[in-house]
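Standup notes
- DV: blocked on the single-chain target, sequence here:
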Amino acid sequence: MDFTIHGRRLLRLLPALGCGLSLLWGASPARALTPPPDSATLVQCLTSGEPAERSATFAGEMTMVPGAARMSMRIELLERAPGEAGYHPVLAPGVDVWRTADPGVRSYRHLEQVTNLAAPAYYRALITFRWSGPHGRVVRRDELRTPRCAQPAPATPTPTPTPTTAASPLE
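- DV (later): unblocked, structure below
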């Protein structure tokens, strides 16, 4: 099948159409090569039959952006139990607190380990990034979610048979 518009083949127009749309949306080759100024990762997910040994370690990393003088981030723990439609915030020590980089830092990374996780459940972090100008005004903000950490239901222990002795009748 040969599509034509005003006698010209449509296939010849597709590259020009794609370039025009990318310019319309503000994409540029330089922007495509620039890495994002922030990232959110799941560093480690440990599962165990013992709640105290279950943990998830999350990391947020950000770099300075033009117009910013300070960088801050907050890591919030989210949980989803089996059968629930979405994630909801969970309180844990050390999370949901704004952490601010020292002045002059160009790249800031913060790790947060959460232990004693319930099972079965899925956990992820919502990391909020904030860049502030020299007078404290927020010049940019972003939110990213980490991959999930699955905490499966603990395996039910197999019952150990209780040794029994058959009583023999006295003879």
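- Follow-up: The helical segments are 10-24, 29-33.
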